[in-house]
């Protein structure tokens, strides 16, 4: 399976000014924007870290998911949440010849943790032997920073601050999250049982 981000978070959606306030950086100087690119990089890195630990997409964007087989013919859990829409589904044979699947043959079951692709008939489309299925979908809490739940937004700020403070020393960063982040993200982490099938 491979999840490919088709669109990225636009710079305008990143809370650079709020992050400056969080860091208590001075303002009103001629070089106020001097560190904006560094702050943006820290925010993007922190968002990626929180998304990886929770399986939740913070700011809305489009993804392409490629897989070689369904977990079950009656349903397929999607790899991230929340998913707003599935825009296309197609199967490809081993020679990459594509078959677009009619949107009437599947439906998105929305869920805060495990959204699923369901067939409207008896089963999901057959994936050719040696082939793949490609699902294109939009995921995220919304298009704007203010659409993100407050506790996840705070977690991003804390992680981004750690990245900023230790930007010159990768060893100081480590894999340890700042104090309190695990508590903030705990309600959003997906508990996987039976190998993640449910």
TrEMBL record:
CDD domains linked: gp6 (cd08054)
Gene3D superfamilies linked to this entry: Phage gp6-like head-tail connector protein (1.10.3230.30)
Protein name: Phage gp6-like head-tail connector protein
Species assigned in the record: Halocynthiibacter halioticoli
């Amino acid at each position: 399976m491979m999840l490919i981000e088709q669109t990225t978070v636009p710079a305008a959606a990143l809370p650079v000014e709020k992050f400056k306030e969080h860091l208590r950086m001075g303002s009103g100087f001629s070089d106020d924007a001097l560190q904006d690119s560094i702050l943006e990089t820290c925010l993007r890195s922190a968002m990626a870290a929180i998304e990886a630990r929770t399986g939740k997409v913070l700011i809305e964007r489009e993804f392409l998911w490629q897989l070689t087989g369904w977990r079950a013919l009656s349903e397929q859990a999607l790899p991230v949440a929340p998913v707003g829409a599935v825009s296309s589904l197609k199967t490809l044979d081993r020679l990459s010849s594509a078959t677009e699947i009619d949107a009437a043959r599947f439906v998105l079951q929305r869920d805060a943790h495990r959204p699923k692709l369901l067939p409207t008939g008896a089963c999901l489309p057959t994936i050719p032997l040696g082939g793949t299925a490609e699902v294109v979908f939009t995921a995220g809490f919304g298009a704007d920073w203010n659409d993100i739940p407050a506790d996840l937004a705070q977690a991003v700020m804390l992680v981004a601050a750690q990245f900023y403070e230790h930007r010159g020393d990768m060893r100081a960063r480590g894999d340890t999250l700042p104090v309190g982040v695990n508590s903030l993200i705990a309600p959003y982490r997906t508990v996987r049982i039976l190998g993640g099938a449910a």
